[in-house]
Structure formats: C-alpha cells, structure tokens
Amino acid sequence: MVVDPRNIVPNVGKIIVQPDSLEEKTQGGLYIPASAEREGTLRLGTSLNSANEKIVNGTPISLRIAEGEKVLFDSLGATKLKHEGKEYFLIRVEDVIGTVA
User: Fold this and answer.
1) Class assignment of domain 5-22+30-99?
2) Domains of the chain: which residue ranges?
3) pTM of the prediction?
C-alpha cells in the first residue's frame, strides 16, 4: 500500500517531519553525501502537520508546533517513511528539541 505521508493524520503526540537535505560542503570543497548520515543525530526539518498537545502520564499538556514550522529534532527512534523518493520522519513530539525562528 502506498500512502503519501502528507495525508497521514498522526495520533496525539506525534508529528510528521520532512527533513532538510544533509548534503554539506566542507571548507576544503568536498561534498559529504546524505548517505553518510549517522543514526541518532540532530536534524532540521519542516513539520507537515500541527501538534497542539501531548499526553504525559495520562494528562494532556498544551504545546504549539505549527504546520510548516522549522523544527530541530532527534532522529533516533523516528520512523522513516519514503514516498516518491522523498524521506519523511514520524516522530514523537518529545523528540522535538525546539523550533527555529
């Protein structure tokens, strides 16, 4: 079954993030490909849905992550989704370190 991750509505406490490209150019002019990524690294990405609350010990906690907002998140433990050659992550809201202005 092929489902576009942008059409998934995650459960409370989860968001879908489209990560920014990892390809980097070093000071010496060498390019480091995205395939050299290590698991458990901090990543930047764009939230594809909003999150208004998370559940902690059965209690809803209010928070605000807006759709389209840039977030810094820990990719360790994230569920990777691929669709039409693009990579997405389904992550817990707790894995969002913060938003980027």
Assistant:
1) mainly beta
2) 5-22+30-99
3) 0.72
b/e burial code for range 38-51 (CB count within 10 A of at least 16 → b): eeeeebebebbbeb
For residue 89, which amino acid is it?
A: F
Residue 76 CA: distances (Å) to CA of 31, 39, 101: 24, 6, 23
Give strand pairing partners of 61: 54
Tell me how far apart the alpha carbons of residues 58 and 18 are, in angstroms, rounded to a whole number.
Answer: 29
Residues 6+ apart with CB under 8 A from 85: none
pLDDT in tens, 33-48: 656 555 558 888 999 9
d(CA 44, CA 2): 25
What are the C-alpha distances in Å from 39 to residues 14, 34, 80, 86? Answer: 20, 12, 11, 18
